[in-house]
Amino acid sequence: MPGSTTVQAYPYPYQKEAATPVSVQNFATEVDTELTAADVQRAIVLNRPTARVTRASGSQSVPINVGTVLTFDTAEWDTAGWYSAGTPNRLTFTQTGLYALVGSMYALFAANTDTYYELALNVSATPVARQKKRQYGAGGVTDSRAVAVGVLYRITAGQFVDLRAFWSGSAGAAQNITNATLGARLVCLTA
Amino acid sequence: VRLTATQLIPYPDPEDHGAGGRQLQDMAERLEVVTNAVDLGYLARQNPPSWIARRTSSQALLISFGETNDIIWQSVDVDNTGNRAPTLSGSNILGKLATEGRPETWWVGAYMKLSAGTILGSRRDVTLVVESFDPLTGSAQVQRIPLTGEETNSSGEHLTVDATVRVLTNATLKIQVDVLSGITVNVESGSFCWATRIGQE
Description:
The complex is a heterodimer.
Chain A: E1 3-4, E2 11-12, H1 21-46, E3 50-54, E4 60-62, E5 68-69, E6 74-78, E7 91-92, E8 97-107, E9 115-123, E10 126-135, E11 146-155, E12 160-168, E13 175-188
Antiparallel strand pairs in A: 1-2, 3-6, 3-13, 4-13, 5-12, 7-12, 8-11, 8-13, 9-10, 9-12
Chain B: E1 2-3, E2 10-11, H1 21-46, E3 50-54, E4 59-61, E5 69-70, E6 75-79, E7 95-97, E8 104-114, E9 123-133, E10 140-151, E11 157-167, E12 171-179, E13 185-187, E14 192-200
C-alpha cells in the first residue's frame, strides 16, 4: 500500500513500484502545499504587526496637576490597523500577545520652579508603567523636558494603549506638549 | 543514489534509469526532515522565549554605603520559556538565560514604582547585572550596565529602564539599586521586569 511521511504527509508509492507520473505529481503537490504554508509562517515572522503614531502639528495643552491623555494626528506606519482617526489617542490591538510599547513626549515651555514631568503608559486606561523626570527651572536653568517610557507588556485582544502626560510644580501655566509619539510592535504571539 | 549539495535530498543516479517507489520514499523522508526543521524554526521565531515578573508587595531598599539592593521578584505573569527560566517567585534573579549553544541577544528591562521620598536631592543608581562564565576559561564574568541615576522627589518616583545584552553562555540577570543618600524607599507592588530574546546568531 502506498505510504506517506508521518509529519508532512509526503506521499510515496510501493517501494518496488515504478514512480508513475501520478505518484510524482501527488508528491510534488504535497511539497508545494508545505512550502506555501512555510511562506506564510515566514511572512508572519518577518512582518510583525507594528505602528507608530505622532503628534505632527500643533501642541496639546496639559494643565498643572491634571493627567491628560495625549492625542495623535498622524500614523507614520500602521501595518495592522491599530490607529483610528475616530479615537486618535490610542492604539487598539486585535491579537493577544506580548507587545513592545514605547511612548515619548516633549514639553515646550520652561517651568518657573522645580517641576516634575511624568509620562504614563496605559493599557485600556490603567497606567502600567511610568517615567518621571525632574526639571530644575529655577534660576534660569532649564533641563531637557523630554520623557520616554517603554516596556514589554501582555495585551489581550481588544485592549488599547495610550499615553497620559502629567506635570507638577509649585505653580505655573499649562504646559504645551509637542512631538509626542506612541509606538507598538507585536513581539510574541503566546502570552 | 546522489544527494543535493545543501539539504542532502537524495535522487536517483542517472544510471538508475528512472526513479522507483524506493527513491521517492527516500526523497520524501529527507524532505520531511528539512521542511519540518524550517517549520520549527519559524515557530520558534514567532514565539521567542519571554517572561514578565512583578512585585506583589513593597520591598524596602535600605541605605548602606557602597552596597546595593537586589530587587526581589515575587510572581510570574508570563513565562513561555519552558525550562529556560527559573521559578522567579521570591527570587532576586530577573531572569536566567539558558542559551542554545549560540550567542544570543536579549532585551531586558524593569519598571520600578518607588515610594515617595521626603528629602530632595537624595539619589539612587540602578544597574543591570549580567553574570555568566567564559566557556574557554570557566571563570565567572560579571557585566554591570548602568541604567539610570535618578534624583528623588517628594511625590514618588517612577523609573522605567531597559537594555539589550548579548550573552555567549547561560547567564543570570539582576536589577540592583544603590541608594546613595536620602532615606529608605520601597519598590512598590506593580513594579515589574521583563526579558525577551531578540536575536540568535
